[in-house]
UniProtKB/TrEMBL annotation:
<dbReference type="InterPro" id="IPR029017">
    <property type="entry name" value="Enolase-like_N"/>
</dbReference>
<dbReference type="Pfam" id="PF13378">
    <property type="entry name" value="MR_MLE_C"/>
</dbReference>
<dbReference type="GO" id="GO:0016836">
    <property type="term" value="F:hydro-lyase activity"/>
</dbReference>
<dbReference type="InterPro" id="IPR029065">
    <property type="entry name" value="Enolase_C-like"/>
</dbReference>
<dbReference type="InterPro" id="IPR036849">
    <property type="entry name" value="Enolase-like_C_sf"/>
</dbReference>
<dbReference type="InterPro" id="IPR013342">
    <property type="entry name" value="Mandelate_racemase_C"/>
</dbReference>
<feature type="domain" description="Mandelate racemase/muconate lactonizing enzyme C-terminal">
    <location>
        <begin position="131"/>
        <end position="243"/>
    </location>
</feature>
<keyword id="KW-0479">Metal-binding</keyword>
<dbReference type="GO" id="GO:0016052">
    <property type="term" value="P:carbohydrate catabolic process"/>
</dbReference>
<protein>
    <submittedName>
        <fullName>Mandelate racemase/muconate lactonizing enzyme family protein</fullName>
    </submittedName>
</protein>
<keyword id="KW-0460">Magnesium</keyword>
<dbReference type="InterPro" id="IPR046945">
    <property type="entry name" value="RHMD-like"/>
</dbReference>
<dbReference type="GO" id="GO:0000287">
    <property type="term" value="F:magnesium ion binding"/>
</dbReference>
């Protein structure tokens, strides 16, 4: 029987030159951090995960060492308790699934149900650009084979002056590519950076924007209200034909249950690297399906997080698209996936997961040594 022998955590930092200025932050980011979690069994097999910083995990290794890595529900319960008392340590759940796949010789997508071995992607932009530049980026995505694109609206820290400026960017995209791309919009109202004290939109603000998005045929509007305003999101969902999406930074699974029970969203977007891991989020796949909602994860971490979300979506879900963070040159695949030997390679807007056991992660050990900070 396979037993966990060790758990190791390392932190890495990639310098960014030129910097990345995210629409939800406004301050240039001069580096990109990645936390790598490795779980090794007594036979030398290693599972890898990444995502949040694993704060609060140190000292809890003994709760896992000596146990079978395939006892994933048991490990999920322990991690949920650590999550309550300390930090979000869900990258360990990803590493355990990776290791369990290597023990059984199966890819995670098949272990989760085997519905499909690939997912269709939407290109998720992260940079605010002038309308003409946004239209050019949309055309680039089309040429790459993507059929959908997410456009970020500016937060209070962003570079555009008003919601009208945000809408102009959408109008420019529609004028350039017509209906050849499905368009999503991230309104950036669900949460704020720690230093940003600007209030989120009111219901009437969000409804005004929704009417503009209806006119432009937008597929969904994401995070249009503060994450706690379930009644507001439910009312907005009823007031507009645009799908309402959210949940990317929701911390607890019970909060998703409330979102589902209240029918507050059309699309729920948990990220397995940030909440619940694969083990917890697969519960949400079925809950959402029973409620007539779409499950399609947020995945703005690195290539390991993208792979983990893709395996869950392909294996158990039925999403029309999966988020693929990609906004070159500021947010290139090479930057995003620096811990890997090679960036993930989509094929005409599809991510194929293949037959490699586990998640299919291959780390660039030399790069990780160069970038390690702790």
């Amino acid at each position: 029987m396979s037993r966990i022998a060790s758990i190791k955590i390392s932190h890495h930092r990639l310098p960014l030159d030129p910097p990345f200025k995210a629409s939800w932050d406004g301050r240039p980011r001069h580096h990109f951090d990645a936390t790598i979690v490795r779980v090794r069994d007594e036979d030398g097999r290693e599972g890898v995960g990444s995502g949040d910083l694993m704060k609060g995990f140190e000292g809890h290794e003994d709760l896992f060492i000596g146990h079978d890595p395939r006892h994933l529900e048991r490990h999920y319960e322990v991690l949920s308790h650590i999550n309550f008392h300390y930090g979000r340590c869900w990258p360990l759940d990803l590493a355990l699934w990776d290791l369990a796949g290597k023990v059984t010789g199966e890819p995670v997508w098949r272990m989760l149900g085997g519905r499909a071995d690939r997912v269709r992607l939407y290109a998720s932009s992260g940079v605010l650009r002038e309308p003409a530049a946004m239209a050019a980026q949309a055309e680039h995505y089309l040429d790459d084979g993507f059929v959908a694109m997410k456009v970020r609206f500016s937060s209070s820290a962003g570079g555009r002056l008003s919601r009208r400026e945000d809408v102009k960017a959408l109008e420019a995209i529609r004028a350039r590519v017509g209906d050849r791309l499905d368009l999503m919009v991230d309104c950036n109202q669900g949460w704020r950076m720690p230093w940003d004290t600007t209030l989120p939109w009111s219901f009437k603000d969000a409804l005004t924007v929704a009417k503009e998005l209806e006119r432009l045929g937008i597929y969904w509007m994401e995070e249009p209200l503060h994450r706690s305003d379930l009644e507001g999101m439910r009312a907005l969902r009823q007031a507009t034909s645009v799908r309402i999406a959210g949940g990317e930074m929701t911390r607890e699974l019970y909060e998703f249950r409330e979102l589902i029970e209240k029918r507050a969203l059309d699309v729920i977007q948990p990220d397995v690297a940030l909440v619940g891991g694969i083990t917890g989020c697969r519960r949400l796949v079925y809950q959402a399906r029973e409620a007539g909602m779409t499950f399609t994860p947020h995945s703005w971490t690195n290539g390991i997080g993208v792979l983990a979300n893709a395996h869950l979506t392909a294996g158990a879900g039925d999403a029309p698209f999966l988020e693929y963070p990609y906004d070159s040159p500021e947010w290139s695949e090479a930057r995003r996936d620096f811990p890997l030997t090679a960036p993930l390679a989509h094929k005409r807007g599809w991510l194929e997961l293949g037959e490699a056991p586990g998640l299919g992660v291959v780390l660039d050990e030399d790069r990780l040594k160069e970038t390690q900070i702790s």
